[in-house]
Design brief:
This is Sporulation protein. It comes from Streptomyces spiralis. Pfam families: Spo0M (PF07070). By secondary structure, the protein is mainly beta. 11% of the residues lie in helices and 50% in strands. It has two domains: 137 residues, Immunoglobulin-like (Sandwich), CATH 2.60.40; 115 residues, no CATH class. The strands form five sheets. Strands 5, 6, 7, 11, 12 and 13 form a six-stranded antiparallel sheet that branches. A hairpin with a 7-residue loop joins strand 16 and strand 17.
């Protein structure tokens, strides 16, 4: 399946650019394949540069305010400068690697609300830069990530929302300037638990799994957050019953917090 996006023409009589993604479904650590097609206008033009990248719409906290920011978290230059002849078509294939930390945007074929990740295309002509709209991609979880997500569903947790936040999670292998939080409503058996936020921080070998458990305020206490993290190998995750593992963890924290 090809996904096409036509950039605005670069000035009167100028070139136009079309980006075609051969497949929009990817996984972290994979590659999105595509082609950029530049259509010459009515005059010859000097192309100074062409690049593609990945961009995410991320939440940023500044004081008491929050706002959305587009962050380009990887970028690849495609070839060097050249002259585009009037009316000519110049096609440039590309393979853009998906960083291992890239947030997932799909779970079991369903899009996660709040996730906006896609391919950007940038064409430079005579010191003018034309950046196109985002060409969305669907980032599916790695098998190890899906095992953890399936365990939450098995325990009765319900998906609430997901977001991407600028910043770093301490003590993890994080390299990108932002991270994802997937929020779940807990089942009734964890009656003192308000919600759980799940983050994955992966590389090519393993991933850090970070849980933020939000306790409901009680009659004589305020609500509070508890953080726990553990590591999962990307290739040996199948040896663990993750539903039992997560339940034991949550129950242990809950017994200390009088959740049950």
């Amino acid at each position: 399946m090809a996904f096409k996006k036509l950039l605005a023409s670069l000035g009167a009589g100028g070139a136009s650019v079309e980006t075609v993604l051969h497949e929009v479904n990817v996984v972290p650590g994979g590659v999105v394949q595509g082609e950029v097609r530049i259509q010459g206008g009515s005059v010859n033009q000097e192309i100074e540069g062409l690049s593609v990248g990945l961009q995410a719409k991320v939440e940023v906290e500044s004081g008491d305010q929050e706002y959305k920011q587009d962050i380009e978290f990887t970028k690849v230059r495609l070839g060097g400068a050249f002259e585009l002849q009037a009316g000519a078509v110049h096609a440039v294939p590309f393979g853009l690697e998906i960083p291992w930390e890239t947030p997932v945007t799909m779970i079991d074929g369903q899009a996660l609300r709040g996730m906006h990740i896609g391919v950007t295309t940038e064409l430079s002509i005579a010191r003018a830069v034309d950046s196109g709209d985002l060409d969305p991609i669907n980032v599916h979880p790695l098998p190890a990530q899906k095992a953890i997500l399936d365990a939450f569903i098995q325990l009765g947790f319900r998906f609430k929302t997901a977001d991407m936040e600028r910043g770093h999670i301490r003590g993890t292998r994080q390299r990108l300037p932002f991270y994802q939080e997937i929020e779940f409503y807990p089942p009734s058996q964890y009656r003192g638990l308000n919600q759980v936020e799940l983050s994955f921080v992966a590389d090519e070998h393993a991933m850090d799994v970070v849980l933020e458990m939000d306790k409901k305020p009680g009659l004589f206490s305020d609500g509070s957050d508890t953080y726990r993290s553990f590591q999962v190998g990307l290739h040996d995750y199948q040896a663990t019953d993750w539903a039992a593992y997560l339940h034991q963890w949550i129950a242990e924290v809950g017994s200390k917090r009088n959740w049950f």
